[in-house]
Amino acid sequence: MLTERIEKIRQNYVNSKPQISTERARIWTESHKRTEGQPVCIRRAQAFYDTCAELGVHIFEGELIVGAIGEFRKCGILTPEFSWKWVDQEMDTFSERRRIRTL
Question: Is the pTM of this model over 0.90?
């Protein structure tokens, strides 16, 4: 049997709309703007540092074990340091993508 707290967290997740977090991409982009003209290795290192320093810590109501990839309960993240071409190619069709039900 689930506790009331766990059931509330579960319902919150089940009823949450999937969203895309742009927080990481925004930090990375702003960092690259500030370091324009510097060597690529320095720019990437600075962007990584800035991301670690500025990325928000998101703790949702009722959680005892915390840690989330983004600021939304159901969240996909944009990771410009790893992969960005698919976002550029699929940006206009995000709202039409088939949702995968996890629960």
Answer: no
